[in-house]
Design goal:
heterodimer, A: 275 residues, mainly alpha, 12 helices, 74% helix, B: 336 residues, alpha/beta, elongated
């Protein structure tokens, strides 16, 4: 019998193998669209809930409608919550025999993770499109140029990609799919709620105010509000450097998260076996 | 002859159990070795070490001349693994599964596609090729799983309990497929709980218990150690036990066994099958010994175990399930 030994290292192999795994994940979304339905309904509910139930009780700086203030925050919250999808997917793979198959193949050791985080970008594109439409329906508008708006969505996708790597790590260390939810909420809840996503930064005080000012969720939200033009002309300029340079500061976080969590996750993947 | 699999002194400990405690194995090129043992004897752990899924705590192993610890990627390029739990993606079709695995072996698109179609034909899955594999029957999934292991035509095949959980017909189909593979010259390591399976497929059998090889030989050699066939008797009255034992001893080719927990039950190894049974019955008639049940039994794994270890196969099974649980928490798809 013939044997062809193909190199399993090198960035090219990681990319092609990662793409093969990403394609496999995308086929699953196509075959089981119910997954999307449930994960997408919750952000729509958030828009409606905050816009119409709490909206009246929350004051935002300057002369601007709360819904316009809210929608960029919901975008960020949605992509952060959406990243749990990465964790679910991996935990599910780990629980099934398929991971043994992957590990017994001479494929790149990072491909399962690269493939998963890549296919989840597609998922985030779909979810952002639905969010944007819901936003437009309730009164959110893009008031800056097209280029800025595209940059805004791009930043959201990059941030989502970074958070996916955190959730990939979570998905690999939890004992079962069911735990992903609880484990990720511990991270997600404080990050998204102790931020400027739903309430203005000015309404926090003391330690919380500092946390909000340097929280990457706040800066991504701030960057989006600037890029989409959802900041009232009269609003005060934020004090922290992070909030004054939200795009640069957010990109620093994105790079830092990937640099830390990608190798960490790959190491965890190599160590773990099917559960 | 070249040894395609060689394991020396493999040790692997899990929290509560020692899954492997110094396992030695060799499989010469082109041969089929069956690793026979009850659940939790360490078969799957041995497979996982040889397939580079886990590292042993001690010992060494080579597959196709490549060290599993020094060059796991090299081993992966030379093996095909088919597991106990069909490792197919249930949302992908049979064809998509094969194409994906081909691509992950580093094949170009066209080659992965052709190889996939070829294997679907060969494994009688062509009609179901474009259906998601979760619509497949258990037997079809196993065949697909085995096809996935063959994508790169590996010189060494490792099959972990390929027929556990299958019905009789699917099992026979699977045996047919495996026999064809073997005739094409692959080296095969197969684990099984069934003596019959090992008997049908393997050149050599290694019996494994508590993570250690306790016997090696052909099926016939092992069976002759267990005394081959045996007569089992359940008496109506325990009082006739001594008389019955004397009748059995005359016919038996070995030692007559009595059971301490059931005084009415006796077992005697015999040769000559039907004739032996007739002689026993005639003897019982002469002595006016009444029986509730009598029968000729073929040797089972449990018998091999009894004769080799003095304990039942089930005893190991219980100890093992604790170990299995810690490894696989929510596997319920294929009842073992």
């Amino acid at each position: 019998m013939s044997t062809t030994v193909i190199p399993t290292r090198g960035p090219m192999r990681a990319l092609t193998d990662g793409w093969v795994v990403a394609k496999r994940n995308l086929i699953k979304i196509k075959r089981v669209p119910d997954i999307l339905v449930f994960v997408l309904i919750s952000p729509i509910m958030f828009v409606l809930l905050f816009a119409y139930v709490f909206g009246g009780a929350i004051d935002v700086p300057g002369n601007i409608d709360y819904k316009e203030f809210l929608v960029p925050g919901i975008f960020v919250q949605t992509v952060v919550f959406g990243a749990t999808f990465t964790g679910y997917g991996l935990a599910d793979d780990m629980q099934k025999g398929i991971i043994d198959r992957f590990k017994s193949l001479p494929m790149s050791r990072s491909a399962v993770l690269v493939g998963r985080t890549t296919s989840d970008v597609a998922y985030n594109v779909i979810s952002l499109a639905i969010m944007a439409l819901t936003g437009l329906v309730v009164g959110w508008r893009i008031r800056e140029g097209v280029v800025d708006a595209v940059l805004g969505f791009l930043l959201l996708l990059l941030f989502a990609y970074a958070i996916s790597w955190i959730m990939a790590f979570v998905g690999l260390i939890v004992p079962s799919v069911e735990v992903v939810n609880n484990a990720s909420f511990i991270v997600i809840m404080p990050l998204t709620f102790v931020s400027n996503a739903f309430v203005p930064q000015e309404s926090f005080s003391g330690v919380l105010a500092t946390f909000v000012a340097w929280n990457p969720v706040s800066t991504v939200t701030q960057a989006c509000r600037e890029l989409f033009g959802n900041i009232a002309p009269g609003a005060s300029v934020p004090e922290s450097w992070a909030m004054q340079n939200p795009v640069v500061y957010s990109l620093m976080w994105i790079v830092a998260i990937v640099v830390v969590f990608a190798p960490l996750s790959v190491r965890q993947y190599r160590r773990s076996s099917a559960k | 002859m070249r040894e395609m699999i060689r394991a020396t002194g493999l040790v692997k400990k899990y929290k509560t159990v020692e899954a492997l405690s110094g396992l030695d194995l060799t499989v010469p090129e082109g041969q089929v070795l069956a690793l026979l043992g009850p659940n939790g004897a360490g078969k799957t752990t041995a497979v996982r070490v040889l397939a580079t899924l886990i590292n042993p705590d001690a010992g060494s192993a080579e597959v196709a001349g490549v060290d599993v610890l020094a060059d796991p990627a090299g081993v992966r390029a030379r093996i095909g693994l088919s597991g106990q739990y069909a490792a197919v993606d249930e949302h992908l079709t049979g064809y998509e599964n094969l194409e994906m695995v081909g691509r992950l072996y580093g094949f170009k698109k066209a080659r992965a596609r052709d190889r996939g179609r070829e294997l679907l034909e060969r494994f009688d899955l062509a009609d179901a090729a474009d259906r998601p594999s979760k619509t497949y029957s258990g037997g079809m999934r196993r065949r697909l799983d085995l096809a996935l292991a063959l994508v790169a035509e590996p010189p060494v095949l490792i099959l972990d309990e390929p027929t556990t959980g299958l019905d009789v017909r699917s099992r026979q189909q699977m045996w047919q497929v495996i026999r064809e593979l073997v005739s094409s010259g692959a080296t095969l390591l197969l684990t099984t709980q069934y003596l019959e399976e090992a008997d049908r497929l393997a050149d050599d059998i290694v019996v494994i218990d508590h993570g250690r090889a306790i016997a090696r030989g052909t099926a016939d050699e092992l069976k002759s150690q267990t005394g081959g066939e045996r007569v089992e008797v359940i008496l109506t009255d325990a009082g006739s036990r001594d008389a019955a034992s004397r009748v059995l001893a005359e016919v038996s080719s070995g030692e007559v066994r009595t059971h301490s927990d059931n005084l009415r039950s006796l077992t005697a190894p015999v040769s000559g099958g039907q004739q032996a049974l007739m002689r026993v019955l005639r003897g019982f008639e002469d002595q006016q010994i009444e029986v509730l049940d009598i029968g000729l039994r073929r040797p089972t794994l449990d018998d091999v175990f009894m004769s080799l270890t003095g304990h039942h196969a089930e005893a190991a099974e219980e100890a093992d399930q604790a170990g299995q649980k810690s490894k696989r928490s929510t596997k319920a798809e294929v009842p073992a």
